[in-house]
Amino acid sequence: MSTPAARAAWLRGEITRHNDAYFVHDAPLIPDADYDALVRELRELEARHPELGKESSVTHTVGAPSSTVFREVIHGRPMLSLDNVFSADELREWSERVAKGLERDPATLVFAVEPKIDGLALSITYTNGVMIQAATRGDGRVGEDVTDNVRTIANVPAILRGGASGTFEVRGEVFLAKEDFEELNQRQREFHEREFANPRNAAAGSLRQKDSSISAQRPLSFLAYQLVDLEGTFSFASHAATLEQMSEWGFFVAPEIVVVTGADAMIARSEWFELHRHDLHYQIDGVVIKIDDLAQRDELGSTSRAPRWATARKFPPEERTTRLLAIEVSIGRTGRATPYAVLEPVVVAGSTVSLATLHNEDQVALKDVRPGDLVIVRKAGDVIPEVVSAVPEKGRRRHRAWAFPSTCPDCGGPLQRVSDESDTYCVNPACPAQLLQQIIHFASRPALDIEGLGEQRVAQLMQEGLVADVADLFSLRVEDLASLEGLGELSATSLVNAIQGAKAMPLSRVLVGLGIRHVGPVAARALASTFRSYERVARAPLEELEAVDGVGPVIAQSVYQYCREDETRERMARLAAAGMALGEPEPAPTLEATLEGRAVVMTGSIEGYSRDEAEAAIVARGGTSPGSVSKKTYCVVVGEAPGAAKVTKARDLGVPMIPPTEFERLLATGTWTVTLA
After folding, report:
1. Do 128 and 164 touch, CB atoms closer than 8 A?
2. How far apart are the first and last CA of the chain?
3. Contacts of 467 (CB under 8 A, 6+ apart)
4. Where are the domains of the chain?
C-alpha cells in the first residue's frame, strides 16, 4: 500500500474478516500467529499515525463487530445521557440549580443516590408483564434489537413476577460482576484465548454477538434503574417506589441505593461510594444522583441530551506513570491539529494505553512535558487517555521544550492558531488527512450509511484520484471502479448503487454527514424537523437557528457560518445537482398493519427507497426487517445487486423471494403476485 491510511484500512479489513471467521463462525482462516502479526502491525501503524486510529478501530474492540446485523429499534422515549460533575463543589452547584428551578430550598430536596455501573445501557420493553423486545441505547433515539441475546441473561425475567398491565420499558445496565469477569478471563486463559481488557468491553461484546448462544455462555447480569411508563398505566409518585416495584417484578436493583434529604446528605453518600468503590461486587466509575419526586422531574424537564433532574459525579480516574517517547501532531476532519503523546504502553483503568492526548499547544507548555520524561497518565472521564504532568527525576537531563510545528505533517501546508481559541488548524482545505476523514464520516453509519464505502475503499478512491470531496462520490461510475484492485463489475455496481441510494437520505442524516462543528445527531434532527429543507436552513437568520429547541447559540453560529462559506455553497450545489433530496420527510401517518408479526428481509437496492426507508416502511406496517434470513422469514425482497448469501439461504430454506416491483403491493396488502425462482 502506498500510504499509511491505505495500509491501515487494508489491515482493518483483514482483521475484521478473520474476527468474523474466528469469533462468529468458529472457522479461523489463518493460524493465530499470523493473525497476531496483523494486529501488531496495525497497532504500530496507529501509534505512528494517530489520525488513523479511532475508537471504532478493530484494535479497540473485542471479537467481531456485529452491530450491522441487528435490526434498528426506535425507543418509546429517548434514552438520554447524563451531564457530569467531578467534585463535591460542582455537585452542590448542581443541587442549587435544581433547587432554583423548583423554587425550593436545597436542604428540602429528596435525592436518590445510586452507583454508576460501568456497563452497557439497555432498555427492555414489556407488554402486560411479558418481555417483547430489548434494545441498546444506540444514539439515544434508535438502538439495536438484542432481544434474543437478552433472553439468555439469567436475571432478566421473561415474565414479570406478579404480572403487570400496559406497555413500559425497564432500563438499566448490562454488566459483568467482578468475580464473573475474573472467571471469564480465567476461562480465556485456560483455552489460550485473548483475555478481555475490562468488564465493560467484555459485557458489550458479549451482548452484541450475532449468535445468541455465545451470549448465553457469558455470565452477563442486568441492573434495573429506571421505569419508563409509555401508556400512563402507573401512578408512582417517587423514583424509590418504581425501584421497589421493579424489584418485586424480579429485577436486580442495586442494594446500595439510598434516598436522602438535603444536599449535604446527598454529597456525603456520593463520597461514601467513592470510598467504597472497590468494595462493591461490580465495577463503578461514579455515582448517579436523581431527584426522587417524579412530579418535580417533570417540572424540571430535560435538555436535548440530558435530564436536568439527574447528574453523574465521576470519580477521579486511576493514574499511572510511564515514559513519554515522543510528541507528535494529528490532523482531524475539521483541520484541527492535536498534539499527542507516544508512550511506553501502560495499563490504565483496565486497558493498555500507548497514546494519550495533550489537547493543544497551551496545555503542552503549561504541563511542560518533554520527550523522555516520566509522566503521569490518566483517563479523563475514564475514557480518553491524557498526560497529566511530568514526574521530576533527580539527576536526569531533560530534552529541550517541545515546540508546536508550523506546517501540517500530512500536507506540508501552514498550521495557524485561531486568535481567540487555544486550537491550531491546518488551513489547507485540500489536506489529504482532512479530506479522508471527511469522506469517511460522510459515508459512516450515523450519516449516509453507504454500504461498502469504508476506510479502505475511501483511501483507495482518493489514491486513484477519483474523489477529493464528498460531492465527488455521486459522480462515480461502474466503469470507474470495476478495474480497481478488490473490485469487479458486480462489486462496483453494488457500490455505485449504494452511493446513489444515499441520495434519498433525510436531511437530518445529511447534516450529520457534513461534519459541521458541534452538530451531532440530536441537533441535526432538530434543525431538519424545524426547517425541512437544506435551503431553508442555509437561508435562516442566526436568531431563527438559535430559537430551535436543542440547538442554542454555539451550534447556531457554527451552522450559520458553515452555510455561508463559498466551499459549502459549491459542495451543496453539486449535491443538489447530483439529485440528493436534501429534505426531511414529514412524519408518516398511522398505517394499516399489513405485515403484523411478519419478518421481511431486504437485500439489494429498491428504486425510490433507501435501505433505512424500506425497513422503516416495513416496521410502520407492523413487520420487522431483520438482517438475516431464517425459517421464520416471511419473504425476501430481492432488489438490484442483492447479497448472494441471503439469496442462497432463502433458496435453501424455501423462503419466498419477490422482486422489487412487488414491494409496494407487499406494503399495501401483505401479499404479492410474482415470486422469483
Report:
1. yes
2. 43
3. 439, 458, 461, 473, 476
4. 1-58, 72-314, 320-428, 432-504, 507-577, 599-669
Q: Name residue 346's beta-bridge partners.
A: 353
Q: Between the CA of residue 62 and those of 176, 193, 197, 275, 346, what are the distances in Å?
A: 15, 12, 9, 31, 19
CATH number for the domain formed by residue range(s) 320-428: 2.40.50.140
For 497-528, what is the HEC assignment?
HHHHHHHHCCHHHHHHHCCCCCCCHHHHHHHH
Helical residues (DSSP H) of 20-71, grouped into ranges? 32-48
The CATH code that applies to domain 1-58 is 1.10.287.610
| Burial bucket for residue 651 (CB in 10 Å: 0-12, 13-18, 19+) | middle
Per run of 10 residues, the mean pLDDT along the chain (length 677 residues) is 81 77 44 60 82 62 47 89 87 95 93 91 95 89 90 90 93 87 76 68 79 80 94 94 94 92 95 86 89 95 88 81 92 89 85 88 88 84 75 86 93 86 86 91 92 91 93 94 91 94 94 90 85 96 88 91 94 95 79 88 83 82 81 88 69 90 94 88
116 is catalytic: yes
Residue 193's contacts (CB-CB under 8 Å, 6 or more residues apart) are none
* E strand segments, 438-588: none
Buried b or exposed e, range 422-450, using 16+ CB within 10 angstroms: eebbbebeebbbbbbbbbbbbbbeebbbb
Cell 414491494 locates to: 663
- DSSP 3-state assignment of 336? strand
**For residue 590, what is the DSSP state?**
P
What stretch of H or E contains 189? helix 178-190
Q: Which residues pair with 609 in a beta bridge?
A: 606
CATH of 432-504, one of 1.10.3720.10, 1.10.150.20, 2.60.120.280, 3.30.70.120: 1.10.150.20
Q: C-alpha distances in angstroms, 295 versus 102, 346, 631? A: 11, 48, 48
Candidate list 54, 116, 503, 632, residue with the active-site label = 116
Q: Kindly indicate whether the domain formed by 507-577 is annotated with CATH number 1.10.150.20.
A: yes
Beta-carbon contacts of 536 under 8 Å, excluding residues fewer than 6 positions away, are: none
Residue 104, C-alpha cell as written in the block: 425550593
Fold of 72-314: D-amino Acid Aminotransferase; Chain A, domain 1 (3.30.470)
Closest to 206 in 3D by CA, of 193, 192, 223, 220: 220
Other C-beta atoms closer than 10 Å to the C-beta of 397 total 6
- Residue 652, C-beta contacts closer than 8 angstroms, at least 6 positions apart: none
Full-model pTM: 0.50
| Domain at 599-669, CATH class | alpha beta
What distance in Å separates the CA atoms of residue 497 and residue 641, rounded to the nearest whole number? 8
CB 296 within 8 Å of CB 317 = no
Taking alpha carbons only, the member of 219, 237, 119, 222 closest to residue 170 is 222
Distance CA 182, CA 198 (A): 10
Q: How far is CA 506 from the centre of its chain?
A: 19
Q: How far apart are CA 317 and CA 314, in angstroms?
A: 8
C-alpha cell, 585: 420527510
- Rg (alpha carbons) of the chain, rounded to whole number: 26
Sheet holding 657-658: strands in order across?
Answer: 599-603, 633-638, 657-658
What pLDDT is recorded for position 22?
44
Question: CATH topology of 432-504 equal to that of 599-669?
Answer: no
User: Checking phi first, is residue 248 left (phi over 0); if not, alpha (psi -120 to 50) or beta?
Assistant: alpha
